[in-house]
Design brief:
- By secondary structure, the chain is an all-alpha fold.
- 76% of the residues lie in helices and 2% in strands.
- The chain has a two-stranded antiparallel ribbon.
- Strand 1 and strand 2 form a beta hairpin.
């Protein structure tokens, strides 16, 4: 059995292979886009549900083309979310021939877990973080010095708000996979991660400030789970080494 695939192909063949994988990704995204555009209104209705649950039953658009472009953006966003596993698979098929068999065995489980963690982060954002953030942000409505202050969210602004939340939380929840891959590659250790805990907490708040709207509630809703995921990564790495040591102990007689 060959430990390493035959990768002594000329650069041109690698470029042809890359072109093939990119064309497959583009074709799948285009097909998914038109399918999602047909269902753009129901998809957007699903996305505005947290806003409705927060007590806001109206969205507006002030530009003639704004509602149309929102449907296009909704379809594109949904297509990218749906096609993410296909894109990841095509990337894997392009990279895999250049990896050793043991490297494939180490990387493949994490690749399979990526959509699960991303989906978990997006679900956390939709069902927990967004409702809390919207209740807080819409709480500024009311009478101010005899002047009525009312929230009238624009469809474009609200879509940007939703996509930032879903994408930001989805990417952030990939942190355990990234840290475990770095540990497998020998770039970090569990002890080093534990020693840098203070910097990780600061980094979690910095990432939350970039990926979420500029309010304290939204940033806390992302920063705290990020810190918990960081700690869980350290525990998972230590458990992995403990299991490996137990499995090797009978072979060494210890």
């Amino acid at each position: 059995m060959k430990e390493l695939d035959d990768t002594k192909a000329p650069l041109f063949e690698h470029l042809v292979e890359l072109r093939k994988r990119l064309l497959i990704c583009i074709a799948v995204i285009v097909v998914a886009f038109f399918a999602c555009y047909y269902f753009a209104r129901p998809i957007f209705a699903f996305l505005v549900q947290p806003l409705k649950d927060a007590g806001q039953d109206r969205v507006i658009y002030t530009d003639v083309f704004e509602a149309f472009w929102v449907q296009v953006k909704v379809a594109l966003f949904a297509a990218l979310m749906i096609c993410f596993p296909v894109i990841a698979t095509q990337m894997w098929r392009f990279v895999a021939p250049g990896l050793y068999a043991r490297e494939k065995r180490a990387v493949l489980p994490f690749l399979l877990m990526t959509p699960i963690f991303f989906g978990g982060g997006a679900a956390f954002a939709y069902y927990l973080a967004m409702p809390w953030a919207l209740h807080f942000l819409l709480g500024f409505e009311g009478d101010i010095g005899g002047v009525s202050q009312e929230a009238l969210p624009g469809v474009g602004n609200y879509l940007s708000f939703v996509t930032r939340f879903l994408f930001g939380f989805g990417v952030a929840f990939l942190l355990p996979i990234l840290l475990m891959l770095l540990e497998r590659a020998g770039l970090v250790t569990a002890a080093q991660l534990a020693a840098k805990r203070r910097y990780a907490i600061v980094g979690a708040f910095a990432i939350a400030a970039v990926l979420t709207p500029p309010d304290a509630i939204s940033q806390l809703m992302l920063a705290v789970p990020l810190w918990m995921l960081y700690e869980s990564s350290i525990i998972a790495i230590r458990l992995t080494h403990w299991r490996s040591a137990r499995q090797q102990a009978p072979a060494t007689g210890e």
